[in-house]
Amino acid sequence: GTFDVSLLTIEEGIFEVKATVNDTHLGGEDFDNRLVSHLVAEFKRKNKKYISTNTRALRRLRTACERAKRTLSSTFQTTIEIDSLYEGIDFYSTITRARFEELNMDLFRRCMEPVEKCLCNARIDKGQIDDIVLVGGSTRIPKVQQLL
User: Fold this and answer.
1) Cα within 13 Å of Cα(6), Cβ side
2) Which SUPFAM superfamilies match (predicted)?
């Protein structure tokens, strides 16, 4: 994924791009990966089994994590349930939005770096910004919206 920031001015119907900054190593997949790592560790703690070498189990877990991330954009808690995730063991876990945010806080902070750099490059102060238009899947994450 990628995180892009553009700063535009609009005067008399004319759009002018003042600055564009991106982080090509930051996107929705990074948030998914954090949740996957967290749940791999939880599975190991609960079942004394390490699933990281099993591609099928990881794929199923990743799909469930992506779904959970999306759900947490509109609710404060969700459950992850995967029947027979690994060696016949069913996996069940609850994740709160607060825990998801905690796991990803450094990534959320990284989202602000391109924003600050874009403002600096455009020589525009935060106070001069009238509107923020968010585009892309990760912009639905409440913490991203809150920080912006």
Assistant:
1) 9
2) Actin-like ATPase domain
Determine the Cα angle at 128 with ends 122 and 113, to 5°. 50
Rounded to two decimals, what is the model's pTM? 0.86
Quote the tokens at residue 97. Answer: 């939005």
Instruction: Please name each of the domains of the chain with its CATH number.
Output: 3-26+105-147 (3.30.420.40), 28-103 (3.90.640.10)
Identity at 122, one-letter amino acid code: A
> How far apart (Å, rounded) are the C-alpha atoms in residues 68 and 82?
12
Strands (DSSP E) contained in the chain are 3-11, 14-23, 77-86, 89-96
- Rounded Cα gap, residues 136 and 148, in angstroms: 14
User: How far apart (Å, rounded) are the C-alpha atoms in residues 119 and 148?
Assistant: 12
Please give the structure tokens belonging to residue 81: 């349930």
91 closest CA partner among 64, 67, 68 = 64
- The string of pLDDT tens digits covering residues 66-100 is 999 999 999 999 999 999 999 999 999 999 999 99
